[in-house]
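Workshop exercise sheet. Pairs work together: one partner reads the sequence aloud, the other fills in the structure field after running the prediction. Swap roles for the next sheet.
Pair: D.N. / O.F.
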Amino acid sequence: MNVTSDFELLGVTIQVEGRPDMPVRLAPARARGTEPPPAPLVLREGSEFRVRLEFAVGAGRDLEGLRFIDERTRQGMTVGHQEILLGDYRRGGPYEIVLPPERLPIGHMARDVYQVIGTFADKKGRILGCESHSFEITKDWPH
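Structure field:
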């Protein structure tokens, strides 16, 4: 988890209907090598999921044009990139945003571990925070 005086990421949770919420153990995107990476979350192929972001805005100033940039890689190749405008926020919080639903791919070719880097930026392009985590797509839910 990366923190600036203007922004603090409090949590990331994966939500799948009919399953318990899966909190993501956050690892700093740029501090790899200091400790082993957390185990990937396990998700069943074809599942529809949502990502819930929780954050606070520091006492420094209000945030305008907050964006979340999500980049996903698999075996070192970028397989997904999206930028989502989250809006403007006053100092304080915590704030909670649930992103639009996504559906995981299906089939043996999709079953693998994916790395995710999430970056938060303001309208001026200032990077406010980064997080990284991974998930694994499997044929079935773990027991």
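Discussion prompt: The chain has one domain: 3-138. What would you look at next?
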